[in-house]
Amino acid sequence: MRLVVLGGGESGVGTAILGKKKGYDVFVSDFGKIKESYKEVLNHNGIAWEEEMHTESLILNADVVMKSPGIPEKSPIVKKLFEKGVKVISEIEFAAPYTKAITIGITGSNGKTTTTMLTYHLLKSAGLNVGLGGNIGKSFAWQVADNDFDSYVLELSSFQLDGIINYKPHIAILTNISPDHLDRYDYKYENYINSKFRITMNQTEEDYLIYDAEDEAITNWLKNNTTKATLIPFSLNQVFTEGAYIKDNKIEVKMMNHEEFSMETETIALEGKHNMKNAMAATSVAKLMQIRNATIRESLSNFQGVEHRLEKVLKIQNVQYINDSKATNVNASFFALDSVTTPTVWIVGGVDKGNDYNELMSLVNEKVKGIICLGVDNKKIIEAFGNVVDVMVEVDNMPDAVRMAQRMTEKGDTVLLSPACASFDLFENYEDRGKQFKQAVYNL
Predict the structure, then answer these.
(1) Which residues contact 281 (CB under 8 A, 6 or more apart)?
(2) Which of 18, 60, 109, 428 would disulfide-bridge 178, Cβ 3.0–4.6 Å?
(3) Residues 6 or more apart from 217 whose CB is under 8 A from it?
(4) Mean pLDDT for the chain?
């Protein structure tokens, strides 16, 4: 059996290693450059590879192709594979049959990284033999090849879910859905929503779907479609006989055949309403995995949070600098602006993915004193907020953005990097953008 891997990054190299171990004839092809460290791994494992090209004669003869999530289905080589009827799948679909481990799959437009990290922290702190993978950390396939975990917590993007056929998580979490990546979904929101719900398409009555009961896109889909999974809702405002909710400033989790869980919200390490939702989702998993209440409480109170997600960097002259570089869509920036309580200078911009900034208008009106546009094309941001804030400037690098923000602030203000856009115009990725922001703050 010939396995061709498109993309020589973390998921691609991990898939190649697992494929080789399982007896496939493996070939890795990357249209860009492959990192030196990955080339060494491929060479060490005797896996053939190419970079900066796709040689059709070596790709179209595949029995199965694992496509890295960053490669669009519209790319010429993928179209040709579809035309030939070659099976094109994601890393998750390829690796899942080779492990007996339980998987917990977590998706959503926002909050999925925090929820994934928190869920992993809860299970690991309870002594479970658990791996962390998917869209975060070490490749799931690589871990299946090298480790023997009993369970995995997997962060799953819509692109990874697009490439599944039979994969099902035992426990799925859908944190929320808001317009994102619409450029990959023909600018149709319903296509993106359906993509997210692929997480539950193969689930059975023995599986669970944990979801935000206040999210309009999720609740509408559930009204009009069916899943066999047992539904476990969470909400800030509704109360359930089975599910997670907040009542009298306490998180409450109730489930059939499980001891009830309760914890004061103020003792949870994470802050903000959206993080209470993330905590409810992760706690629901912990209850299903039979973790003791005392362990859950301790883990929720000592969790450190996620880098580049509402990360408090420094306070300089009583101005708080916050790194929310992971906010690559409008909904994520909504949570960020909602969580700040002082006058804010907002650094925003990057590669627009079909953003509608109107959702942010009331928060910008209320909280934002100045906007710094950090992108190659800032037209939509200027059109949306040019008449709303007193000061708006454009810059094309992070040190200038941070220095300009410092000039615009006074004691008690906040400087918030929450771009609402992808980073690829000026930065390698959102991590690079966040690191440059932090460095520029340290240099003030």
Answers:
(1) 106, 111, 115, 119, 173, 175, 210, 212, 234, 244
(2) 109
(3) 176, 177, 178, 189, 193
(4) 95
280 vs 303: CA distance, rounded Å: 14
Instruction: Express each pLDDT in 328-362 by its tens digit.
Output: 989 889 989 998 999 999 999 999 878 899 999 99
Long-range contacts of range 429-436, CB-CB < 8 Å, 24 or more positions apart? 430/308, 430/325, 430/326, 430/328, 431/307, 431/308, 431/325, 433/325, 433/350, 433/398, 434/307, 434/308, 434/311, 434/323, 434/325, 434/326, 436/398, 436/399
133 is in an annotated binding site: no
Q: Does residue 418 have a known ligand-binding role? A: no
Cα separation values, 419 from 100, 273, 328, 383, Å: 40, 20, 6, 16
Q: Which DSSP state fits 168?
A: -
DSSP structure string for 223-250:
HHS--SSEEEEEESS---SSEEEEETTE
- Which candidate, 146, 134, 128, places its Cα nearest to that of 173? 134
* 110 annotated among ligand-binding-site residues: yes
The answer to whether 103 touches 109, Cβ cutoff 8 Å, is: no
- Give the pLDDT confidence score for residue 352 in this predicted structure: 85
- Run of H or E residues at 6: strand 2-6
Q: Hey, what amino acid is at 289?
A: M
Evaluate whether 158 touches 92 at the Cβ level (below 8 Å). Answer: no
- In the chain, the percentage of residues whose pLDDT exceeds 70 is 100
Tell me the per-residue pLDDT of 375-429, one tens digit each, with 9 for 90 and over: 988 999 999 999 999 999 999 999 999 999 999 999 999 999 999 998 988 999 9
Q: Annotate 90-115 with DSSP letters as a single string.
A: -HHHHHGGG---EEEEEE-SSSHHHH
Say if residue 113 carries a ligand binding annotation.
yes
Residues in Cβ contact with 313 at an 8 Å cutoff, skipping those fewer than 6 apart: 321, 322, 323, 437, 438, 441, 442
Instruction: Tell me whether residue 349 is annotated as binding.
Output: no
412 is in an annotated binding site: no
pLDDT of 129 higher than 90: yes
Rounded to whole angstroms, the Cα distance separating 83 from 66 reads 16
As a whole number of angstroms, the distance between CA 33 and CA 8 comes to: 8
φ, ψ (nearest 5 deg) of residue 107: -135, 175
- Is 114 marked within a binding site? yes
Give the pLDDT confidence of 284-318 residue by residue, as tens digits: 999 999 999 999 999 999 998 788 988 999 999 99
